């Protein structure tokens, strides 16, 4: 484009060469600064300019530059901003919400939780993302699931070992292997009644293992954890 600025001859041939130089310059720069759409627009603008026989190549260059500059500015601005997002976990209206605010949002802010799902969670005492993240039975189920992978069967427990999770299990499951606990119904967790166990079944969590992998609780837990490390947004990103 700077080359085209220097050519101000009025002949058609001189104008044609200058305009082409301007477009080629923009096209070469596009690999680094401009989108393919911006380059196509520039080429179309150059053709239209030649058809109208603008008085000079510098006028064409100025017009092309004015078309490309906003796109370059947007590209430069966006490159300095965060690219982090959790779009697949949130409803569209909440995608710009910071983690620190999401933790207090209702569970319906999570993509996939509709009114019926939310009502079933409410019966379990869960209404917000933070409450879902902090749900103690989810954490117990996750602990059982994680530790089950480290369990040696059938004779891995040494004589005199005292480790147990009796305070979190109904009496009938206290002597079970961790891996067997994963197949137990959610109501096997001490504090979850048969009624609440039925509510969890409605949500697709029939077993302790299902609860351990309940994706909405895992999303909620991750959001709450991320919020602890979130810095207040700089002024240019608010």
Task: Describe the fold and architecture.
23% of the residues are buried. The protein starts with a helix and ends in an 11-residue tail after the last helix. Residues 1-10 and 29-33 have low confidence and may be disordered. Helix 2 packs antiparallel against helix 3 (36-52), helix 3 runs antiparallel to helix 4 and helix 6 (115-123) runs antiparallel to helix 10. The protein is an all-alpha fold and 238 residues long. It contains twelve helices and no strands. Helices cover 53% and strands 0% of the residues.
Topology (elements, then pairings):
Elements: H1 2-5, H2 12-30, H3 36-52, H4 57-79, H5 99-102, H6 115-123, H7 129-133, H8 136-148, H9 178-182, H10 194-202, H11 208-212, H12 215-227
Can you tag this structure with a few keywords?
0% strand, elongated, mainly alpha, single chain, disordered N terminus, 238 residues
What fraction, in percent, of the residue positions are helical? 40-55%
Question: Shape from CA axes?
Answer: elongated
Portion in beta strands:
under 5%
The secondary structure category is mainly alpha
Kindly summarize this structure in a few lines.
This protein is mainly alpha-helical.
